[in-house]
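hey
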């Protein structure tokens, strides 16, 4: 039938579902939207003229399972680690198990199995870095792609010999402790840990990243108040003793040594590190990449103390001076009571002076603490409940938007004094968009693949979201000379969700290099990119890519959401369309990349990217607290990348979108409601190719069939 007109019908289904039929004019087809780890029966018939069909040819095949989600270390002790993970996508009712492989650089690897989503690995070596890999195992032993993380086991605990002395005001305390035993290696740093939690013998896992600000915001009862690096910041060294004043307002890395609350009781623990690693962005301790030993907590230390001894003595003297009967009895046993009276008067004066001095010191300390605590919020609008937002917005718009303009003006220059020295180096200037923004040194994305910041420079910044500090990467559109570095950034940061907010060509001006393949594979440095599917709707296109590291043949899946209805200098009148798009991306992120940064880019990686990230944060904040703080959201974005909301008009637009979200509908625009639009409408034309695998491995949700 080589020269005969024909087509093919492909019928497929599994035992628990209906069957579906697709047609093809070629001898191969890709079946989409399959369930992971499931047996499918596939039947193919040839269709000739007048619809005549051949005898069927059938076969069965299992899709591969999807990988575990959100690998989390619950506890890491001296000789064991407990970890858990999320249920694989689309496998709730599918038979499965998990293989957990672990080892360190100086040993073999071991594998254990689990039928649940958690496991405890025993008999480990203390203070050792282990790499742990988890795969889902489906029927017939088919395995998913691996998910890996590294973690250090803890060192043996230390005895707590800390001595604690409170100040009279109760908002500082001196902590003195002996240097730790060095049998497990030299101690390179100490952390002083404070807690108001009265249960538990020592700090739990996850505490080392908690700061004083987290404590003040009531997200934790335990925090690191300061870091001591013995060679650099040691306050005093006497016979191997170390001393620190808790509450003095100093700062080491991102840890603020904030004042204590005189109304609370605290306990103290000391952590000693033989290896300490800081998150390069937020500058807090990376617990999984640091080796620490802990002391147990001290006993409770109440910060409300008894009256100092001086006050107690003064009280006795005052009683003497006020009780004449007592003075008379003293006179009968002395030759004269004049000396006693004079002494009582002098004692009273000294007592009053001492009380006054102590009172002044206490007042000054309280004033300093109040000034410190108000530093981060002074003069800023507060969060507003959703039911009050429209009233607040109307006040901002009054008198020709006077208050809104003033509010934005106070935000315009936030963060702009921070250095961008790497971006401004002569070798890097050509890698920035013309008239674009420059990433700050502290928050720019650094690539470990390149040995210097010139070859590996990219105009991109880590941006905090509502949930995590590195939830987003905001980047400028790639230029021809930066496409390879762009894909390197995607690989190194394990990005599997990309949001593009501009066209490649706008108003006859090039906005972005087309950095993805349209048909044939493209290779950018060590990264090969294959287009799996492309689906274009009215306002956006969704593309799925298979991304391969040619050095080790590892493959990943990346989905790009390309929004095309928003030009750089044009107004986006259809706010509801943007909100639908954001909600679509948000749903995908929650399912497929909850622990990986989402890459958001536009021409400069500023205005449109800033609005997208801000709205994502606002949606999450409203869902979580039923309140919203636009000022704080934009303020926080500006601290990490300049011009993230570039103009007063964009700030107004952000408020209007927030009001649309709160109302749950946009009565002025096309009768759309981003909250109630059916998910099947948003997804009905988007192929589920997000889990496609390399040709050597059958996909968990997509199956390619050759009809030769």
């Amino acid at each position: 039938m080589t020269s005969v007109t024909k087509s093919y019908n492909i019928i497929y289904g599994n035992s628990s579902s209906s069957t579906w039929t697709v047609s093809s004019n070629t001898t191969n087809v890709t079946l989409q939207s399959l369930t992971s780890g499931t047996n499918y029966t596939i039947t193919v018939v040839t269709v000739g003229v007048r619809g005549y069909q051949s005898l069927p040819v059938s076969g069965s095949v299992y899709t591969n399972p999807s990988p575990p989600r959100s690998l989390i270390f619950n506890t890491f002790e001296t000789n064991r680690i407990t970890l858990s993970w999320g249920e694989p996508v689309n496998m709730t009712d599918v038979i499965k198990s998990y293989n957990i492989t672990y080892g360190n650089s100086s040993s073999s690897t071991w594998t254990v199995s689990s039928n649940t989503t958690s496991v405890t690995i025993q008999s480990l070596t203390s203070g050792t870095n282990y790499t742990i890999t988890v795969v889902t195992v489906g029927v017939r032993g088919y395995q998913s792609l691996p998910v890996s993380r590294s973690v250090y086991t803890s060192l043996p605990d230390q005895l707590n010999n800390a001595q604690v002395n409170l100040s009279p005001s109760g908002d500082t305390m001196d902590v003195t402790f002996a240097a730790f035993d060095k049998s497990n290696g030299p101690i390179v740093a100490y952390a002083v840990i404070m807690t108001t939690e009265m249960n538990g013998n020592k700090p739990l896992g996850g505490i080392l990243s908690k700061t004083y600000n987290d404590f003040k915001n009531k997200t934790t009862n335990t925090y690191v108040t300061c870091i001591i690096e013995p060679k650099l910041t040691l306050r005093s060294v006497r016979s191997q003793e170390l001393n620190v004043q808790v509450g003095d307002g100093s700062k080491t890395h991102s840890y603020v040594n904030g004042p204590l609350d005189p109304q609370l009781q605290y306990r103290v623990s000391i952590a000693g590190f033989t290896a300490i690693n800081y998150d390069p962005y937020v500058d807090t301790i990376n617990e999984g990449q640091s080796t620490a030993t802990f002391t147990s907590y001290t006993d409770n230390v109440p910060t409300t103390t008894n009256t100092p001894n001086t006050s107690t003595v003064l009280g006795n003297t005052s009683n003497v001076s006020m009780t004449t009967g007592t003075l008379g009895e003293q006179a009968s046993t002395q030759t004269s009571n004049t000396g006693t009276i004079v002494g009582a008067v002098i004692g009273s004066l000294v007592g009053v002076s001492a009380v006054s001095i102590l009172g002044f010191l206490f007042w000054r300390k309280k004033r300093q603490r109040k000034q410190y605590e108000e530093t981060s919020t002074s003069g800023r609008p507060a969060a507003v409940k959703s039911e009050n937002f429209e009233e607040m917005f109307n006040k901002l718009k009054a008198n020709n938007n006077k208050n809104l303009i003033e509010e934005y003006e106070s935000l315009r220059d936030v963060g702009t004094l921070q250095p961008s020295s790497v971006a401004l180096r002569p070798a890097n200037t050509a890698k920035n968009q013309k008239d674009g923004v420059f990433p700050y040194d502290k928050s720019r994305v650094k690539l470990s693949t390149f040995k210097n910041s010139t070859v590996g420079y990219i105009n991109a910044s880590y941006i905090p979201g509502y949930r995590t500090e590195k939830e987003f990467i905001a980047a400028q559109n790639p230029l021809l000379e930066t496409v390879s570095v762009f894909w390197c950034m995607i690989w190194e940061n394990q990005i599997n969700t990309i949001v593009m907010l501009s066209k490649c060509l706008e108003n006859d001006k090039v906005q972005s290099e087309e950095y993805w393949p349209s048909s044939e594979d493209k290779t950018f440095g060590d990264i090969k990119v294959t287009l799996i599917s492309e689906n274009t709707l009215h306002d956006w296109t969704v593309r799925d890519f298979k991304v391969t590291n040619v050095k080790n043949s590892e493959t990943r899946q990346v989905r790009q959401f390309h929004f095309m209805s928003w030009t750089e200098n044009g107004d986006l009148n259809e706010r509801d369309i943007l909100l639908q798009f954001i909600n679509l991306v948000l749903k995908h992120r929650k399912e497929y990349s909850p622990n990986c940064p989402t890459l958001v880019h536009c021409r400069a990686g500023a205005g449109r990217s800033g609005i997208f990230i801000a709205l994502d944060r606002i949606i999450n904040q409203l869902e979580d607290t039923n309140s919203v703080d636009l000022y704080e959201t934009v303020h926080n974005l500006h601290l990490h990348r300049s011009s993230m909301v570039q103009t007063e008009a964009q700030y107004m637009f952000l408020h209007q979108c927030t009001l649309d979200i709160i109302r749950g509908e946009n009565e002025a625009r096309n009768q759309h409601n981003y909250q109630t639009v059916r998910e099947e409408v948003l997804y009905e034309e988007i192929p589920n190719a997000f889990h496609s695998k390399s040709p050597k491995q059958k996909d968990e949700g997509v199956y390619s069939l050759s009809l030769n």
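The longest strand covers residues 265-275. The chain has five domains: 7-63+702-706, 69-152, 163-302, 309-332+344-374, 391-677.
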